[in-house]
Amino acid sequence: MGVALRLINVELRLGSFKLGPITTSVSDGTYNVVMGPTGSGKSTLIKVIAGAYRPNSGSVIINEEDVTDKPPELRGIAYVPQGYALFDHMTVYENIEYGLKVRGVPRRIRAIEVRRIAEDLGILNLLNRGVRGLSGGESQKVALARALVIKPRVLLLDEPMSMMDVSTRESLIPLLRSIPSRFNTVVVHVTHDRNEAYALADKILVLNNGQLIEENEPEVIFTRPSSLFTAQFVGFSNILPAMAVKTPQGSMVRVGNHILYSTESIEGRVYVCIRPEWFREGNGDEGNVIKGVVLEVERASMGFKVMINADGIIFTAITQSKPSRGDSLSLTIPPSLIHLIPAIE
After folding, report:
1. Mean pLDDT of 92-111
2. Disulfide engineering: 164 pairs with which of 125, 136, 214, 237, CB 3.0-4.6 Å?
3. Looking at the whole model, is its pTM more than 0.90?
């Protein structure tokens, strides 16, 4: 698998904000998600790739060509900004053909290509309509058609689903996910939504304060992150300082008065990281048992979010049953689901 996009020590200063230095690469035919909180530099990063910003230092390589000093139209990229930026005074057809028109593609070829991409995205029936009054999902598809019709090497999407309701967002996931294989392009998609990132990505890049914190497959980012920031950002609501000692089976970890076992082998000061949905109710035959008193109960999408006090340590779990405040509750967590992150000395 070849490399479609490479960033080498890319650094950009915008006022008091500094992006990078960032070095990374994305492979042919992949869907890549840049994830991080508001103000982390996600949109700035893809604007550097697009050519809207020129980095103070470093290189942007697309298809093995250094495009750092090239304008956006000569980079082989298409960029869909947040809000889609459709032309209100044009029809859907005219919006989609715009990129072909400015490139001097003959009218007859433009007509063929516009109809082909509209059919692929299921919007043939919209071609003669104005863009005002389109739904969020329809607007997104038109913006995607306008971007994809020029056959970009790299497609950049900035918060593409931020203006949609939940059901529209969910209905577009399969379409977005299919873009690399259907249209022979690489996608770099910016979001702060972790569910969106998990559903779409082949690779996730986590940004914070202009720095690339880590990058990996979604399964690793969401279950075995290497940094505390990532663990917090992707939903590990139990992050507890502890001491670990290696054992033949992994590690024995002391958290307050609790002794927990992890299959990860590590020694010294660590943070115990547990996702709330990984707990099971009751005393399991295999696993670490934590007994405590219920402090708070909240409704959650997957059940009930329950906080318990276990000998002065607060644990948060998702349960299927609804306990009451003051109830005694036992939770079980298997050693394989206790993730340890070394504490930085």
Report:
1. 94
2. 136
3. yes
